[in-house]
Amino acid sequence: MNHAVCYVRVSTDEQAREGVSLAAQEERLRGYCMMSGLTLDTLIREEGVTARYSLAHRPGGKEMLRLVRTRQVQHIVGLKLDRLFRDTEDCLRQTREWDKAGITLHLLDLGGQAVNTSSPMGRMMLTMVSAFAELERNLIAERTATALQHKKQNGQVYSPTPYGYERQGDLLLPLPDEQAVLARIRQLHNEGMSLRTIAQVLDADGIPAKRGGRWQVSALWYLLRHAK
Q: Does 169 lie in the same domain as 139?
């Protein structure tokens, strides 16, 4: 009953910013399984997948949950909490289900040490550290949002150059042509046109997206939500 699935995940931003590569995670997880006497049956890699979604809404996460549900593995091995879970509630809900099913979660770096949920002490550590991790994330998000709002209000660069503007140093200056497209997008949306249809209209008229190519529904949603 020592069959294990290892789960590694990284988003593009994280890999560029922190060097958290899939290969580095995989090497540590393989070494841990060998030292702990676990048989590594499956290694699931998710690249460019955000932690905003629960495991059930990630391609690799779905496969891992299927392995657990069909009793093909008894151990789940990950590097850190944030590789697997989106927040404390998600973590505790999922690990309670695994506990009932006899599945042990192993985390190699939980507050600087390896912890597994096979013991009451391990489960307590998981609960405490996950709560503090969420608090830290929320504080960082609050500070980041305040800083971005200040830059946005003062016409400073606060992200990759948004549609409708060009960057000059640390300032954002309006681009008349793109501002006209923004106004059209808003008008079409206010008239009740769906985002998918708006994208088709812009593509048919030969209007490129910010980095060229076709318009995406997600890009239009972001523009309507964030553009000044």
A: no
CATH number at residue 53: 3.40.50.1390
Q: List residues with catalytic annotation.
A: 11
Residue 158 located in a structural domain: no
Which CA distances in Å does 45 have to 5, 20, 32, 61?
11, 13, 17, 9
Q: Whole domain around residue 214: which residue ranges?
A: 165-226
Question: Which amino acid is residue 211, in one-letter code?
Answer: R
Tally of structural domains, the chain = 2
pTM: 0.57
Residues 3-46: tens digit of each pLDDT: 999 999 887 655 545 555 788 889 999 999 999 999 999 999 98
For residue 22, which of 12, 32, 31 has the smallest C-alpha distance? 12
Instruction: Please spell the DSSP secondary structure of 93-138, one letter per residue.
Output: HHHHHHHHTTPEEEEEEETTEEEETTSHHHHHHHHHHHHHHHHHHH
Q: Quick one: which of 9, 5, 3 has its CA closest to 85?
A: 9
Q: At what angle do helices 217-226 and 176-190 cross, to 10 degrees?
A: 100
